[in-house]
Amino acid sequence: MKSTLLSIALIALALTPALARQNSKSSRTEAGLAKLAPADRFQQACDIELMERLRHESRPYKPDSVIAYALGDPHVSGDTLEGDGGAFRSGGIWYQYSFTCEATPDRMKVISLEYRVGEAVPRDQWDSHGLSIH
Known about the structure:
- The chain is of the alpha+beta class.
- The protein folds into two domains: 1-35; 37-129, Nuclear Transport Factor 2, Chain: A (Roll), CATH 3.10.450.
- Helix content is 39%, strand content 31%.
- It has helices at residues 2-34, 38-56, and strands at 63-67, 75-77, 80-90, 93-103, 110-120.
- Strands 1, 2, 3, 4 and 5 form a five-stranded antiparallel beta sheet that branches.
- β3 and β4 form a beta hairpin.
- The longest helix has 33 residues, at 2-34.
- The protein is globular, with a radius of gyration of 18 Å.
């Protein structure tokens, strides 16, 4: 019994720095979002959520940039942002994506996100969509 409690305590101590880093990162993200205008905050919150999901899904995407409006303007309806002209960069290649993102009324947290990754954006279209400068 004592060894089990000791093991649990050691695991909790080992996880504390990781949780602190995660909470610190989350706090910095929230502080940054709070400084933005609500419309920009909405888009950024959805972009951040998409990036996190792509990093953790089974496909080999490692996104380093996400732009919800790269290939077309998203549309807002209440607390939902929807578009089919988003693009994200992974491994130096831009990919198109479509999405529906619902956030809290203050636009600080994403409630739900549905997305579909499309084809790679042809390199000869990067300049016309401003992707070359990102």
